[in-house]
Every structure is written in structure tokens, then in C-alpha cells.
Design a protein that fits this description.
single chain; 156 residues; alpha+beta; Umud Fragment, subunit A; seven-stranded antiparallel β-sheet; 3 helices; elongated
Length: 156
């Protein structure tokens, strides 16, 4: 390639690189955030039905008691599952709850009463509760939540 041909092709190559960079940034941003529509009254008044929240994906180390989190819904009480590739993924497979206790924290009274468990939350699990306890299915019903099933946190 002659220097003149290279100079003529440079703007086109720059455009291709710029489009590629923008595409990579968009994909990474999309993968790091979840758009969740609130369904039900379990988190009222903090979150109302139909409200859309953007949650940021987070690992177990990025969680704090009091966070509103997105977690994978249990298939049936006590039986946790992770959606397989191509399987049921999306808002129907998620719950929005408040993180009430992490490993090593005392088991909250509503959970200890309903499950008959006392002491501290074991390693690898957490306790989640809805803000509106009268309308919430949470750790009082399905027990401890494996921490790896908490997939995102709603920013405060």
C-alpha cells in the first residue's frame, strides 16, 4: 500500500475503529445493568408496581445490608435454580427484595420466627425481605437465599 493510498483509507479505518469501540462499550454497559419493572406491592412504598429501575450487576463482595437487590426467583420453596442458556431469563425469573442480613449477621426476627432458625446467617447465604411484609413472599417463606443468586443491586 502506498503512503497516498494509506492516507486516503485512514478516515474509513478510523470510522470503523470508532464504531467498534462504541459497540464494545454498549455491549459491556448492557451486560453490567439490568432494566427491571416492579411487579406487585412487596416493595411498596419504596418501589411501586410499574416503576422501572436500573440495577447494576454485582458480585457477592459488593453487597451491603439494606440494599435493594435483584435475585433469581426460586422455582419452588427451598429449591433454587439458575436459568440455563436459552432458558427462562428476564423479569419473570427475578425478584426485587431488600437485603436484610448477610453471612455472619444475626438472623432477623421475622425469619427466625417463621423458619424456627436462630443465631447467625450461615456462610454463602443471605436473608431478603420485602418492605411491605403483608404483600411479600421472601425469606420468611423460602428461607435463606444463596448469595450467588443475588445478581444485581439497585443504586440508592
Amino acid at each position: 500500500m502506498t503512503p497516498w493510498a494509506f492516507a486516503a483509507a485512514a478516515p474509513a479505518m478510523t470510522a470503523v475503529v470508532a464504531v467498534t469501540v462504541v459497540a464494545v462499550v454498549c455491549v459491556r454497559t448492557r451486560r453490567s445493568r439490568l432494566r427491571v419493572t416492579v411487579a406487585g406491592q412487596s416493595m411498596a412504598p419504596a418501589l411501586t408496581p410499574g416503576q422501572v429501575v436500573i440495577a447494576h450487576r454485582v458480585g457477592p463482595g459488593g453487597l451491603r445490608t439494606g440494599d435493594v437487590v435483584v435475585l433469581v426467583k426460586p422455582e419452588c420453596p427451598g429449591d433454587w435454580w439458575w436459568p440455563a442458556v436459552g432458558g427462562p431469563v428476564g423479569e419473570g425469573a427475578w425478584l426485587l427484595k431488600r437485603l436484610a442480613a448477610l453471612p455472619g449477621d444475626p438472623v432477623p426476627p421475622p425469619v427466625s420466627t417463621s423458619l424456627g432458625v436462630t443465631g447467625v446467617v450461615p456462610e454463602g447465604v443471605a436473608v431478603v425481605l420485602g418492605d411491605n411484609t403483608a404483600a411479600s413472599v421472601d425469606s420468611r417463606d423460602f428461607g435463606f437465599v444463596p448469595v450467588d443468586r443475588v445478581i444485581a443491586r439497585v443504586p440508592r
